[in-house]
Structure formats: C-alpha cells, structure tokens
C-alpha cells in the first residue's frame, strides 16, 4: 500500500515486527517514520531517543501535536520526571500509541527497513569502511559499475544518489531512517548496486542495522576519531562490526595494512563469509585474493601487475595519482570480481575511472607548479599524500595544512611531525577551526617541530594557499591538505563559503598574468 506521495503505508505492527508487541485494537496505519519531531507529518511514527545534542523524548508532545499517530521511545534512562510526563501524555492522547522500546537507537534501522519493504534485499550493497580511502573506493566502484553498463548508487561523504546525481548528506553514514529511505529510493530508480561508505560512528551507533550487505570492504586502519571512541581498540572494534552483519557473503580486506590484517585473521577464524585478501602479502594458496606483483607510478600512469584467484593481468590508469591509489584500485577490482564481473572487463573499466574531486586532484602543471588538493586529515592520510606528491616533484614539496577544531587533538602534533619531516616547506594554517582558536590549533600542530625557516604559520587559509603557490617554482609540487572538495569553512558555529579550488585557481591565474 502507498500514499499519494508514492511512499509506503504500513500498519504499526508490520513495522514493529517481532521487536515490539502491538495490540490489534490499536494498530494505526503509518505514513512515515521520523526521528526529528520538526519533520513530523500527519500519520507518522516518531522514534524518540537521546541524541548527541538533544533528547528526542523531550519532543514527544510536539510530535503528537504535529500529527504523529504512534511513538516508540527509549525506555532505558527514563527518569522520574520523564516517566510522569509520559504517563500524562498517555492519558491526554489516548488515541496515540506511545510504546517504550529498549535500545531503540539500535532498532531504528530495523523498523525503517520494515517500513520501506527491506530495500537492501533488492540490491547488492557493498559497505566500505576504513580510516582512509572510503570515499575514493566507493566512487571508483560506482563509476566502474556505470562504465560496465550497470545502474549504481552511492552513499557517503559527498552525498547520496545514483552515480552523477548526488544529494548532500549530513553524515558519511546517514541516520538509520534516512539510510533506508535512500536505499528504497535508489532501488525504485532501478539501481542494482550500492557502494556505501560505512563510518565507525555509524557502526558503533547501529545506523546500518537493517541493511543486508553483499560485501564488506576494509581499506586500512590508522588513528582517527579518538575524540569519539576514546581508544584505538574501540575504534578498531567498531570497524570490525561490519564483518559480522547478517546475510554478508564476502569480505575484502587489505592485508598489507597491519591492523587490517589482524582483523582478516580474526574474521577468517570466526566467520563463515568468503574472505578476499588484497595486497602484496596475499597468499593465493590459502584464500581468495588479489596479489600485487609489481607497481609502477610515473607522470603518465599507475600500472599494477596482479595475480589473482580470477586470473592474472595488468591494470593501467592515467587519471589517478599516488601509491595509495594502487590499493584503492585493487580493492575496487576485488569488489567487481566478487560481483561476478569478468577480470578483463573489470580491469578495462578501472583503466577508465577518474576518482573523486578533492582526493589528490591535480591543478597547475606545464609552466606552473603542480598543485594537489587532498582531503587528508589524519596522520596516515597526510603521510600518504606527501609520499604521493614526492613522486611528481623534481624540486621541493610544499605542504599547506591545518587540523579541524573540536576533534581529536592528539593527532595534531603527530600530523605536524609527519609534515615537517616529509615536506621541504611547511605552511600551517586553519582548517575548520569550529569553536577553537586557530592560533592554539597551530601551536599544537607544531608542538614537536623545532623552529625553522622552512616552517611558517599563516592562520588565514586563503593567504596560506596563495603564499605557497607564489613561492613555488615550476618544478615544485604544492600539497593543499585537509579540506578537499569542501565548499565551506566552519568557524564559531557558522559555515562560510570557502573552496580550496577557487583559491588555488585564482593564485595560479595571478601567477601566470
């Protein structure tokens, strides 16, 4: 059954399934599910649970007044005052079902999947997790599938939707209701495959519950988001959850990354899914895999020679840069192979892909210095981006970067140390300072870096980028790291229009004039 807006209508009992008892005499028709009371429309089910900023249970009255006909609320953590308020609501709105549910946040995706008719079961969903490479791998995969004549969708940092038509997302992994809604929409548009970034936050908070994944992919693991997870152990534990989701058929893991290799061994021991090992350390005698035999990276192309469980071959791509893209390409190749595409077709498709704006995206060149814009905002990503930049410089490597405010402070000095050691000239500047002082962030970045003429602090990011490009010689490479394709800068709770691309292009034009 659907309503006039082509959305499903389900009885509350069908949405609840076996998770919540719904009595037959009070089983309203549900027209939509919301976790934000401000979005409630007549006939909706409101899921009320504590969030990072506010507690949804405090807005139950507002949701009912806007038309909610049923409410599931988090039973755990209800204090005396809240219980009294809920009792009052039950008496005041006797025609509205207000039902307590334990661990509601972890069940929200299951309710939404029921409401939207289990959309992931109509698709082949590939979930991609890891510290670095999620966005690039998801885009390469969707682009390759499109090249192979398939209709595919994307969910991740740069938005959600069919390939080439993305709508902005608030989070890398959307909230559980929005996620099921997006999957249903793309299935309705004829998509057969979904390449989906899966963040550690999304895994830890159960946002992906209710999604049936065909394949789980792990790119690598290094330090990130410890402000949220508290320890690297909890961060790794969250990532590993992707390999234990129901209905999973394949797992693809980069075994050249030590932390990922540890997960490979644990999953191999404890799971019945078919594991695919990717990397130079792959042992094709003990598991499915792709073994990297040789790589060549030059100004013209990335050339990778491989041996695999599907045959041998060579992958040549002239649109991507850097050694880390060797792994991105091979991981995506594994994804295509477990989807049953022939090896030769997959290799050819990946020779054509272009990658993602803001991930080692090259501007300049010829009589101008080469300028790479990259999203690198973790220690490992910055190390990889700088290593890649060196491959394209016959002169100096000049690095411009900062660190985001209100995020893991512990990685700042680590990133400063990496940049100082790998770059010939380091310019420290603002990223998205949010509610923190740019000056303080820069001081923390340089905490372990000795004073030097090769280290400069320019708090204004536009000035820092212009300074770097003006000082560079044509044989130099400038790496602008941290923000990638972002079109804003977040300062004191506000987002201001800002693009590294616009600043770089303007500086190059002035230099050429």
Looking at this protein, list some descriptive labels.
single chain, 513 residues, alpha/beta, Udp-n-acetylmuramoylalanyl-d-glutamate--2,6- Diaminopimelate Ligase, Chain: A, domain 1, UDP-N-acetylmuramoyl-L-alanine:D-glutamate ligase, Protein-Tyrosine Phosphatase, Chain A, 3 domains, ten-stranded mixed β-sheet, six-stranded mixed β-sheet
Per DSSP, the total helix count is 17
How far from one another are the termini?
A: 64 Å
Q: Would you give the CATH topology of the largest domain?
A: UDP-N-acetylmuramoyl-L-alanine:D-glutamate ligase
Estimated helix fraction: 25-40%
What is the name of the CATH class of the largest domain?
Alpha Beta
Q: Record the strand order, biggest sheet.
A: 9-8-10-7-11-12-13-14-15-16
CATH superfamily of the largest domain: Mur-like, catalytic domain
Spatial shape = globular
CATH architecture of the largest domain: 3-Layer(aba) Sandwich
Secondary structure category: alpha/beta
- Sheet-strand content, in percent, reads 15-25%
Average pLDDT, all residues: 92
Strand tally is: 24
Largest sheet entry: 10 strands, mixed
Number of domains: 3
Uncertain regions spanning at least 5 consecutive residues: none
Give me the Rg, rounded: 25 Å
Q: In oligomeric terms, what are we looking at?
A: single chain
Task: Characterise the protein shown here.
It is built from 17 helices and 24 strands. The protein is an alpha/beta fold and 513 residues long. It folds into three domains: 10-113, MurE/MurF, N-terminal domain (Udp-n-acetylmuramoylalanyl-d-glutamate--2,6- Diaminopimelate Ligase, Chain: A, domain 1), CATH 3.40.1390.10; 116-352, Mur-like, catalytic domain (UDP-N-acetylmuramoyl-L-alanine:D-glutamate ligase, 3-Layer(aba) Sandwich); 361-512, Protein-Tyrosine Phosphatase, Chain A (Alpha-Beta Complex), CATH 3.90.190.20. It has a ten-stranded mixed β-sheet, sandwiched between helices. A six-stranded mixed β-sheet has the order 17-18-22-19-20-21, sandwiched between helices. Strands 3-4-5-6 form a four-stranded parallel β-sheet, sandwiched between helices. Strand 17 and strand 18 form a beta hairpin. Helix 5 packs across helix 11, helix 5 (134-147) packs across helix 12 and helix 14 (410-422) packs across helix 15. The longest helix is centred in the middle third of the chain and has 15 residues, at 324-338. The chain is globular and about 75 Å long. It starts with 9 loop residues before the first strand and ends with a helix.
